[in-house]
Amino acid sequence: MIAEGRMEGVIALAGLESVGKSALFRHLTGNQAGLETNVKGSTVVFTRGRLKRYGGVQVVDTPGIRYEDDSKTTQMTMDEAGDLREIILVVKAPHLKDELLLLDEQLDLRGKQVTVVATHKDKYNPDDQEKSFIKELLNVPVVWCNSRSMSQDEQEELWKAIQFSSSWDLNHHLLTFLPTAQKEKQKHRLEQLLSKRLIGPLLALSMVIGMFALPVFIAYLFSSYFQPISENWLVDPLTNSLMNVPRFFQELLIGDYGALTLGWYSFLWAFPVVILIGLSVSITEETGVQEHITHALTPWLIKIGLTGRDLTPVLTGFGCNVVAVMQSRSCSSCTRGACISMISFGSACSYQIGASLSLFGSAGVPMLFLPYIFMLLIVGAVHTRMWERKSIPHSAVSSLPYLQPITWQGTIFRLKGILKQFIVQAMPIFIIICLAASTLDYLNLMNGLAALIAPLLTGFSLPPDVAPGIIFSIFRKDGLMVLNEGQGSLLHTLEIWQVFITVYLASTLSACLVTLFSIYKEMGGGHALRLMGRQMMTSLMSTWLLAIILFTLFN
Fold this sequence. Notes:
alpha/beta, 23 helices
């Protein structure tokens, strides 16, 4: 049991990246929100919970520390550790000496109650003599374990160590006498390939494409197959059953922008994308592959003012831009602005992907999705380099995570979280957009709304009818789906190149309001306004150039 006087308080988990802090948090609290991950910088906010055995004691899971790093996550952890008296230092067993030296330099540990947990025991487990020497030298409890799958004995040993944590009074120089771990096992073949100068970036790029191309392709096959079935068995019967209700409610529910009709198409096309991309990203995170991919691509990313660590939030943006903006806290302060700029312009979130797939599919040109994504990434890279020239990539890189088997419990939990966010947050907002569009259409205000940006659309050879999709996409990217009104009747009146230009313009003119609000909270109102203005300028200019090129080719 926890000793008397220790029944209440706060204990912080502190360590470098990818050492297993979040896994320990789960075992200590039983809180599934703290599942482990192998992605550096993934814990970008503090996760708090109560010890499952002693509810009066709070445990704080902190972001991973980087050596000589100025990221917000590192500063957050240092500030938190400085305020707390009790700390669990989490280190990798193979790198115990080096990591303790770094943590002792970064954190003000003297006089604090400390427990040391050495994870990845499966990679290196010292003999009893070495363990005894380490414990005597540190004079604090030390536990070796595999944080991803702790046995009952390991959990009991951890509880006992926390109970008898000791004051850290060690002179920093004495840490140099800690034994150096024996040579680790040979690297995984995939790690070796990704570390090669030429093959590595090419392999990493192909893996990134596979992470998103395969899920999107499967989602498209699923949605295109079930759309006609759902129309026969759900949409048409529903429409017929509501034909006798007052006209206003018809417009709200089953009109061109109806919540039941258009809302269903949004769900049908976005839901598979959300789940499958979420599964793909979760697997690469759980296995540690994602960080090796981003590290391999660093030489290419530097050319646009980013580093490998900045790619992780950019990839996260393909699931949700808001989460990606928060995850950018792990970026160096000199590249964070460039990272957020790339997320805002080039990272198509799951809802945006589902909406664009639906529109291209309804127009009969699903293959346009490939050049569409390509254009987002290329123009996004140019946009980032053009507006973020002062970004100076930070070269410090800590050790990469180990490649490990999939933790299906963690993967399933992530998918549950994605599903909950989609059902509870995304779909209700889209339904509100549908209701707003239906009301405007019923009041004959949609034409007036379209007239506001008609001069802009004329410059791109687009009809005013596409205005609602462009306007509503600013609120949410799946607002694009309003262009699918009348089961795609509007899209069939457009030329193929006009469909492409419309989707591209609506996607890039501005980040959605929720993303802009997140940027405002993270970086301030001035930064959010500058980013919005710059993105609009890049979007309008690139759309104008695209319109000229495509009009010339197809006319």
